[in-house]
Structure formats: C-alpha cells, structure tokens
Amino acid sequence: MSKTGITLLGISGSPRLKSTHYAVNAALDYARERHEVETDYFSVHAKTVGFCTHCDYCIRKKKGCILDDAMGELHEKMLRADAWILGSPVYQGHVSGQLKTVLDRCRAVVARDPHAFRNKVGMGICIGGDRSGGQEPSLQSLIDFYIINQMIPVGGGSFGANLGAAIWSRDKGVEGVKADEEGSAAVHRVVDRLVDVARLLHT
Ligand SMILES: Cc1cc2nc3c(=O)[nH]c(=O)nc-3n(C[C@H](O)[C@H](O)[C@H](O)COP(=O)(O)O)c2cc1C
Q: Can you give the pTM of this predicted structure?
C-alpha cells in the first residue's frame, strides 16, 4: 500500500508500445516518485477488446458485459483505482478507435451500478504527430466521458496544461515524446492536480 493510500490507473489506447505507452508510464513513474501513490497500468496493445454492439445484455441483466475479453481485466482495474490517466494517440483529430471502444465498453459497468465510477478523478494525455493535430478535441472527449460517468475531470491549469496534457510526438515515437519538454511539463502539472484532488476525495 502506498503512503497516500491512492491508486492511479494508467490506460494506453494505442495499439503500439511507443509514444502513448511511454508517456502514460512516465506519468505513473512521476506520480509514484513525487507523490508516493500506488500505480497500475493497462494497454490495449495485443489485447482483444470487442466493440460494444448495443445488445443491452448489460442493461437487462445487470451482470456486466456479455463479451468475454480483455475488458474484464480492465473493468476490475478501473473499479479498484481512485484516479485514472486515459492516454490516447490522436487519430483523425480524435482519440483512437481502440480507446473509444474501451470507453464504450464501460457502459456495462455503469449499467450494473450507476455510481460505479462516482468521484473517481480523471485526466487525459493525448499525443499527436502534429503539434496541433487534435490533442485538444481529444482531451475534451475524455473530459466528457469523465463527466458522463460521474467522475471528476482535472486539468493542469492555464499556461500549458489547460484541459490536460497535450504532447507532440512528431511521429517519432518515444524519442518524440522525450523531446517535447513542454509536453512532459504539462503531464507533471496535471498529475500533481490529479493526486491533489484524489487525496481530497479519497483519504
Ligand atoms: C490512423 C492514424 C491517424 C492519425 N491521425 C493523426 C491526427 O489526426 N493528428 C495528429 O497529430 N497525428 C495523427 N496521427 C499520428 C499519431 O497520433 C502519432 O504518431 C502518435 O504519436 C502515435 O502514438 P503511438 O506511438 O502511441 O502509437 C495518426 C496516426 C494514425 C495511425
């Protein structure tokens, strides 16, 4: 157990173990070192996460999702954590289809218990190959998910991290993320706020 008693879950919505995987793990490393929290991680890389097909099994039965895939493991992690870091590459100006599928599949958890995610705290890290390639609309869609699911979204404040952490990878994977010093500074500021609010709500 961490000193603070807070557990942060990082989720990467990239099918690769490159920029997003690196950036989310760097955020978790920083959170552990700076704030002494416990961390957990999930990547969609090499996982099977099927589309929600709107079959409404979750609504009718209230026993979770009818699909038996990697979301079972992720749902458990989501429920255990006090705060989440959702990370996504920017695809066509928005979050990746993989991350969107993860978010859609959360309907099954909330169908079973409408307050399942209530007061968990959430932040976003969005990484584009272009400097202004859609990071902000992507961050906004993560904020919308948090609000819809009774969670508390946080940003890192004005001058650099308004809606969350936007990173410019220049399509250079891990090297691109490491080179974006503004992006890393933004991640730190949002993580600081995430832990601050999680402590207020969960300790
Ligand atoms: C299908 C696809 C669409 C993309 N669309 C955008 C885009 O709209 N804006 C942008 O800045 N980068 C775009 N990119 C580039 C990625 O966001 C960028 O390379 C990112 O760092 C990849 O993250 P990863 O290394 O974690 O996979 C796209 C990449 C792919 C594969």
A: 0.98
